[in-house]
Amino acid sequence: MRLADYVSNQSNVPMTSAVTPPEIHSVRRRQDARSRRTNTFQTATAPVAKAATEGNKRQNNTSNAQKSLVTLTSVTKTYDNGSQALRNVSLQVKRGDFLFVTGPSGAGKSTLLKLLYGQERATSGDILVDDQNLAKLKGNRLAMLRRRIGIVFQDYKLIPRRTVAENVSFVLWAQGYSRREINRRLRPTLRMVGLQHKSNCFPDQLSGGEQQRVSIARAVVSTPPLLLADEPTGNLDGDNSRQVIKILEKLNSIGITVIITTHDEQLVRSSSHPVVQIQHGRLTYVRH
Ligand code: ADP
To answer: ∠ CA(244), CA(256), CA(93), 5° rounding?
Structure first.
């Protein structure tokens, strides 16, 4: 089932805890004005899903299935202190792919993801994400691309004094979604990660696995076409790790392209998804 359909089917009951904090209202007003000026972004994030639509198209249209969402060509990243994190990396990730990026600590995995969402700039080489050349994107245009990329971190990065519902909603408020639309998306997204019954809990009332599932819900509630997960199972035991992977696979099955870094060899071996490995900044394909 596509996420768009999933949300439509499940969205009749509003979430009671969706209260808009005052500081978020002002962000929303600014974003509303900006969104009105920017048709591309509005189209891209409008009712649940370009990503899901992409997934649907993928099944019906062979040429689209071949289309890259991410392309790196001869990318090198050297940090200011001289540390060479990536060396001559080329990689293509097609729409709808689920890709594992493995390698030991310090190999360059996080750097790769940071380049993809524009937190760091490549020293040389080209990076295309959703047909946009990252080297040429600045300011508002870079911010708009970032909104179309969901990110999950090893340490969850939840807001401690906000409930689960508020943590997940925040990203939508900040992007200018109406309260009605937020309520429409919130419940099915929490249901998808199995946390509908925890919506009023605070992060410190949740287990590590649950916190990670909240962070996944937050990353996908705006239905981005691309989800980057940086060691999402790094702090979790085996059972919770497998649960996280299952959720990511579920998201992938409704059309979201997933790139996940991990140094957990067992996790990678127990799946059949494509794998690339980074060692000392060099990337090689392990399994296509
Ligand atoms: P991984 O995610 O595989 O553990 P990283 O991408 O975090 O690896 O790091 C790759 C290399 O780049 C390491 O040698 C690390 O010390 C270095 N590095 C990462 N971030 C920075 C930074 N902000 N400044 C300088 N060096 C960095």
So the answer is: 105
Helix (H) or strand (E) run with residue 3 in it: helix 3-10
Give the CATH fold of the 3-65+95-120+133-287 domain: Rossmann fold (3.40.50)
Q: Whose Cα sits closest to atom 25 in ligand 1?
A: 79
The residue whose C-alpha atom lies closest to atom 7 belonging to ligand 1 is 110
Report phi then psi at 152, rounded to 5.
Answer: -125, 135
pLDDT recorded at residue 48: 34
> Side-chain half-sphere of 22: how many Cα atoms within 13 Å?
0
| Structure token digits, residue 240 | 């919770």
Residues with CB under 6 A from ligand 1: 79, 81, 83, 85, 103, 105-111
What's the pTM?
A: 0.82
Q: Give the number of other CB atoms < 10 A from CB of residue 286.
A: 14
Which residues are bridge partners to 77 per DSSP? 86
Q: How confident is the model at residue 131 (pLDDT cuts 50, 70, 90)?
A: very high
Of 1-5, 54-58, 187-191, least confident by mean pLDDT is 54-58
pLDDT in tens, 146-163: 999 999 999 999 999 999
Would you list the domain boundaries of the chain? 3-65+95-120+133-287
> Do the Cβ atoms of 135 and 126 come closer than 8 Å?
yes
213 residue type, one letter: R
Residue 12's pLDDT band, with cuts at 50, 70 and 90, is very low
133 CA to centre of ligand 1 in angstroms: 23
Q: Which atom of ligand 1 approaches the CA of 103 most closely?
A: 3
For residue 120, how far is the Cα from the chain centroid?
17
Q: Span 193-197, mean pLDDT?
A: 97
Residue 288: both structure tokens together: 């296509």
